[in-house]
Amino acid sequence: MSSSPNAPTPVQSAHAIHPVDDSEACFDILAPSSKDIRNIRSHILQTFCSTCMMSEKDLGQQLRTCGKCHTVWYCSKECQTQNWPDHKPTCRESGLPKLIRTLISNEVLQDILHLCFILHFNLLHRSIFDEPFVARVIVAIEPSGILDFAKILLGKGLDKKKVQGMLQFNRFQPATAAQLESLPWHREMWRRERDRVDSEDFRTDPVALMDIAFACGQHSIAVPVHIHSLAMEQ
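Structure (tokenized):
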């Protein structure tokens, strides 16, 4: 049955309830406290020399970091000099290390990232414990207020100097086999974490690597991820 093109279009109304109050209350219940995050952040990220892959635990001393970008570490001046030709093109100031420490110190965000690995790599139906698998996680700092975000997105600018920000996950992208072959030091980092997890009697638990980078930057930092079997049973 056809209708006249001149007939008025019926108007449909919808009622919506703003969820901010409930969302904030739920977030307050689930989110770890700032104090807990600071306590975990101070020692959670194990660092390795970017040249020889020796860790602070191996050396028994603290590694030195690049004074400009603070995203790479070295065990000696010699290793820093050797790595400089490779590091120089991407050496820029960055707040990535502290951001990553905060990210992996948050148990709620860790659970979400573990779920991403479980779903993307089909870990519920296949066992991967004897080979590395890597995913690049693209993050950004964006306004927590939707109106502030919309103004920036539409190019209208902001009428205030400071805006509350939040960490945003923009992409979770599994690495291909070809990409893995071009990242030999990722494989070494995975092997060290695999040995550590095995020593704690979690030999059948998957171990992944998470390569975290800013959306518009060239820096990335690889972080080993132990995915407990308990996470796949829940």
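The first helix runs from residue 20 to 30. The longest strand covers residues 134-143.
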